[in-house]
Amino acid sequence: MPFLPHMYVQSVRFDHSPKLHQMSTDTPHPVGARVVVHSRRGPEIARVRTEATVHPDVGRFGPILREATPEDLTRHEELLREAEDLKWMLRARARTRGLGVKIVSCEFTLDGALLTVCYSADERIELGSLIQDLRGHSKAKVNFTAVGPREQAMTLGALGACGRENCSSTHLQDFAPVSIRMARDQQLPLNPEKLSGPCGRLLCCLQYEHGMYQELLRDLPRKNAKVCHTSSGACGKVVKLNPLEGTVDVYTDAGLLAGVRPSELTPIKGQDGGGRGGDSR
Asked: 92: which of 35, 45, 60, 138 is 20 to 30 A away, CA to CA?
């Protein structure tokens, strides 16, 4: 029986995105190595981010062609500079023509055959004039790709409210749905300026601890539920939830009862006093 060499899979990262892409290879490459891969766009430079693992179905992954040579890296840097010049040229032409488009980035494949132009626009626009401009400066095939606000933040980079670089350009692999309900469940003030990231959308980090808050809220009465304090007999309405402390604040005719445990409360008959603390409607 003939010997069949092992085929491996390694994850790589491109310069323009933190997302990891699995690629096949017959020769493992060290983590951190710059390699030439064949992506859906063509040959590109990427950096190896994980150790090699044997995979039974490598046919569905794009291949790592080779470790990047000094010539590959020099060519890559030249194309980066050329793409940057074209980006600023397109921005100037779009502004001169009054086009409502923002040119986010320009990226060449390593062979210079394809130029991908990422842009953002609030409405459908005609890009024909910009394509003509590019043809006067490059022979590459041009592909315009529309991107959303979060993709823009991923490509351009920005500082988040925490003072660190935004998650979308450093480590996020996918953009999970984020809702205002996540902010409500975490008892955050519903201030759009404080809940929005640099992209203008809800902060991606609202999802990180949401599952824990949902679990903590299960043991608390619903906000606005009518309850009675067992020991004092005072009755009133739940006005605030403290999920991390496992308590609630109750406003009664006698005043505010702060930091009350759910075990000290009795729901008023006909009122739903527990199990859905996150629902403040």
From this structure: 45
